[in-house]
Amino acid sequence: MSQVCQLSGKKPTFGNNVSFSKRRTNRRWDANIHDKSIYVPSLGRSLKLRISTHAMRTIDKKGVEAYIKDQGISLRQLEKMAR
What we know:
Strand order of the largest sheet: 1-2
Structural class: alpha+beta
Largest sheet: 2 strands, antiparallel
Number of helices: 3
Distance between the termini: 15 Å
Helix content: 25-40%
C-alpha cells in the first residue's frame, strides 16, 4: 500500500544513517499513516481515508470542512479519494 496521506500529501522522506565511524547507509522515514473513517457533515456520510496523524490532529482542531478548504480540496475530489 502507498504510504502517502490522501489529505495532506505527506510521504516518506529519505536520508542516511550515520554510524560512529561516519559510514553512511541509506534509510527511509515513513509518514505515520492510518486508515480512518471521517464523517463529513455536508455530505451526510463517512468517508474512509488513509491520513497521517498530523492531518488527524488538525482535523480535530479545525474541523473537516475547514481543513479540506485550507488544503484546496473540493468535496467532489474528496469523494473520489475515498473510493
